[in-house]
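Run: sequence + KG4 -> complex structure.
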Amino acid sequence: MSESRQSQNPPQDLILGIESSCDETAAAVVAGGKTILSSVVASQIDIHRKYGGVVPELASREHLRRIVPVVREAASQAGIALRDVSAVAVTRGPGLVGSLIVGVTYGKALAMSLGKPLIPVNHLEGHVHAVLLEAQAAGRAPQFPAVCLIVSGGHTILYRVIREAAGEHCNGNTIRGDSAPLHYGRIGGTRDDAAGEAYDKVAKMLALGYPGGPIIDQLAAFGDPDAVRFATTKIRGNAYDFSFSGIKTAVFYLLRKHPELQGEINDRGAALARGERSAQALKPLCSKTTLDLVASFQRAVVDDLLRRTMAAAEEFKAESVLVSGGVAANRALRTEFEKAAAKTGISVYFPSRALSTDNAAMIAAAAYPRFLAGEAAEVTLNAEPNLPLA
Ligand code: KG4
Ligand code: ZN
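>> structure
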C-alpha cells in the first residue's frame, strides 16, 4: 500500500543504470532504488559460444554496436524520456577493460548532455544489490550484518556486509533504513578459477556447450552426485578462500581414464554444431558415466561454496546470507543453501534467476544510496578493470 502512495506522490527518483563489464550490454530504469521500470539485457552468448568463452575484442565491439539501442529501449519500456532521469549510473569495474570503457564513455557523455550526475558503480556491489532490490520490493529486507557470496564466471568472493545506521548525509539528506549505504569487508575469494569458469571449462571438455552452468545444472539432475568423489582442495592460510582448478583438472584426468567416452563427446560436438544445445537434445547423447560425472562435479562445487559461506556466516554472526552472480541461478545450489538456512536459522536470499546474471537494474539500485548521499563522478572518471569492492 505504501508502495503505490510512494510512486504517486512524491515522484520517485529515476536512475538509469548502464552495465557493460563483460558480455552483456544492459540498461535499466529503477525508481526509488527498488522498483524496476525496465531492465533490458542484450546477451552476446551467441557471438562467444563458438570460442567456448568471452573474446574481449569481440565483446567491446558488440557493446559499441548495442549500447545506444539498449539504452533507448530501456527508456521506452519504462515509459520515460531520458531527460526525466535523476542520474545516470554506470559500471566502472571490475571487468574487461575494453567492455567497461564503452559503458563508462557512453555514460559520461549521456550524463553530461542531460546535465545529470554520473554515479560510478562497482559491478560486485551491483550483484549485492540484485539481491536487496527484490527482497526489499517484496517487503522482506535482509537483516545486517550479512555475508554475501558473489559467484559468477568471473568472480567467487565472500564479503561481510554491514549497513550504516540511519542518520544524516553530509549533503543534508536523511539516510533511511533500506537506502543507507553498505560497507564491505573481504572475507575470502578464489585463488584460481571462479566457480562459473569451472562450470564452463568442464562443459567444454565434455562438449556440452557454452555457457556450461545452465546445461550442467539440468543434466546433473539425471546423474548420481555420489558416483565420483572429488577431493576437497586444501587451502592454506584462509579457510574462506576457494579453489576450483583442482576439480576441473580432476575431470580432465578422469576423461583420460575413460577413452570410451570420446565417441559420445564427438557426437555431442556434432549436435552442438547443428545448433542442438538443449538438455533435451544432449541428454540422450550422454552415458550414465557422463551424467554421474556432471552430477558429482556439481555436488563438489556446491558443497564447497555452501560449506565455506555458512562457516563464514557463523563466524561473523551474520543475520543473513546473500548469494548472487550467474552461478546463484543454479538449482542445486539454491536447494542446498535453503536447507542450510532452515537448519541454522540464518536467512538466505537469492535474486530471481533473471537478476542473478549480469543486468543493469542492479547497477541502478546500487547507485541509489550514493545518489542520495550526493556522490557523483568527475568527468575524468575512468574504467577500472581491477576495481576491488573491499
Ligand atoms: O554473472 P554472470 O552473468 O557473468 C559474470 O559476471 O561472469 O555469470 C555467468 C556465469 C557463467 O560461468 C555461467 O556458466 C554461470 O554463470 N551460470 C551458471 C548457471 N547459470 C549461469 N552456473 C551454474 N548453474 C547455473 N544455472
Ligand atoms: Zn557479474
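>> summary
The chain has two domains: 14-142+174-181+353-372, 195-318. Residues 123, 127, 152, 325, 358 surround zinc ion (ligand 2) (CB under 6 Å).
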